[in-house]
Structures are given as C-alpha cells and as structure tokens.
Design a protein that fits this description.
With 238 residues, the chain is α/β, with parallel strands linked by helices. It is built from six helices and 14 strands. The chain has a domain of 164 residues: Spore Coat Polysaccharide Biosynthesis Protein SpsA, Chain A, CATH 3.90.550.10. The chain is 24% helix and 29% strand. Strands 1, 4, 5, 6, 8, 9, 10, 11, 12 and 13 form a ten-stranded mixed β-sheet that branches. Helix 2 links the parallel strand 4 and strand 5. The model has no long low-confidence stretch (mean pLDDT 96). One of its GO terms (molecular function) is transferase activity.
C-alpha cells in the first residue's frame, strides 16, 4: 500500500516554532515529526510515500535528501496551497488502482494499521476514516452500521444521509484509507477540504465508513502544549 502525508500547512498554531521551519520538521524527542510518521508507516510495510509541500517546502526537500529511511519518498509541491482536498486530487496520477493511506505529518499515534486496512477491505466503502473519542469543536457522526452520516460542529449536528439506528459522535484521527475511484467523482473546485468532499459524496449516496482505534495512543501535535504532552507521554509504536 502507498501513503500520502499532508505536510503543506503553515503550522500557525505552533508559532513561533514554525516561523523558521515547516510544521512537519518540528522536532519531537530530537526527531522531526515527519520522520516519526514515516517510521510508523514502515512498520506496516508501506514503502512508497508521497508528501505534499508548500510552506518552506525547500526545507522539507533538503531533509528528505539528507535522510535514508529505507522507503521511496516523493513530494507533490503546491505553488498555491490547495487544501486537503485539492492537494489530494492534485496527486491522482500517483496512486494506480489499489487503496492507499492518507495521514497528517503532525499526528502521532500507534494504532494497528493492518487492522485498519482489513476493515476497509471488508466494509465496501469508498473511504474509511480512523476515529477516536477525542472531543473537539468538529466531530463526525457514525451510525450503528459504522457508516458516516453527518457531522457535529460547535455542538450542532448536520446529517447528510439517513442514519441507521443509534448515532455515535466521534473524533477524526486524520488517517483515511481511500479507494482511487474517488477521483472519478467530479469536482470543479481547486482548493477545498477533503472532509467537505466526503460529505458531498455521502449526499450522493457514496458509502464512507468509520473505524474506531480503541485505546491506542493518539495526539495532534498542533500546539506547543500538545507537543510538550507528546514529549512526555508518547509510549512508542506497537
């Protein structure tokens, strides 16, 4: 399986750390976050990785030239930032026919990616999203069949398809497994959110599933506070 790592963002919540280096290269225990993510993917046999870049992209290029991580690493540079949706659609020629993984350079976790892939292979979904119980202002709504049916923003629920049975409010882990058939779904937008596109697809009858990571470790290294938290708490990979 191939993987796509989002690393184009400005990292504004991590300022001043990101004034001089991109968010993906912010160090955790003296190692850049991007390297932690790549090593995590390697554990599960992922050997072809595409990384999107924009902000301070030359520093990411220089890092990738200097390290030898035992995988094939390529970049997809965005002269104008395209968002998570536009950035993904910009890479559509890279993926071939097999499902691929998407993740963020600033998410540190240790759940079982093999189990995540196995779920996607059996749930007949275009996309499977890894979920957890982390509460935030933006949450997902998943029904009893494990199918995404809506979202909750600032406490307000919006449904994009009819839910089956009881609905759970879950957090999104920033990890997706996506079938390349997604690129056959037309969009006229250039810069857009992939999550917004998922809800558009749900309205069109496309099935998108959720998969709970259980009690696995997960943290969004989005602020200096969560970076310090991860420095102390991260238990390593399983």
């Amino acid at each position: 399986m191939k993987a796509f790592i989002y690393a184009a963002g400005f990292g504004t919540r991590l300022q001043p750390l990101t004034n001089e280096i991109p968010k993906a290269l912010v160090p955790l225990r003296q190692q850049p976050m991007l390297q932690w993510v790549i090593e995590y993917l390697k554990i599960y046999g992922i050997r072809e990785i595409l990384i999107n870049t924009h902000y301070l992209s030359k520093k990411i290029d220089a890092f990738l030239e200097q390290v030898s991580l035992g995988v094939t690493l390529e970049t997809s540079h965005e002269p104008e930032i395209l968002g998570t949706g536009g950035g993904l659609y910009h890479t559509k020629s890279f993926w071939g026919d097999a499902p691929f993984l998407i993740c963020n350079a600033d998410i540190l976790c240790n759940f079982d990616l093999s189990a995540f892939l196995a779920c996607h292979q059996t749930n007949d979904s275009l996309v499977t999203l890894a979920t957890n119980k982390k509460v935030s202002n933006s949450m997902l709504l998943v029904d009893e069949e494990g199918t995404l049916c809506g979202r909750q923003k600032n406490g307000k629920k919006t449904f994009y398809r009819t839910a089956v049975g009881k609905v759970r409010v879950v957090g999104f882990c920033g990890y997706h497994i996506v079938d390349p058939l997604i690129f056959s779904k037309p969009t006229e937008k250039v810069e857009f959110s992939i999550i917004d596109q998922y809800f558009t697809l749900i309205e069109q009858g496309v099935k998108i599933a959720g998969w709970d990571i259980g009690e696995a470790y997960w943290v969004d290294i989005g602020t200096p506070e969560t970076l310090r938290q991860a420095e102390i708490e991260f238990p390593g990979f399983v």
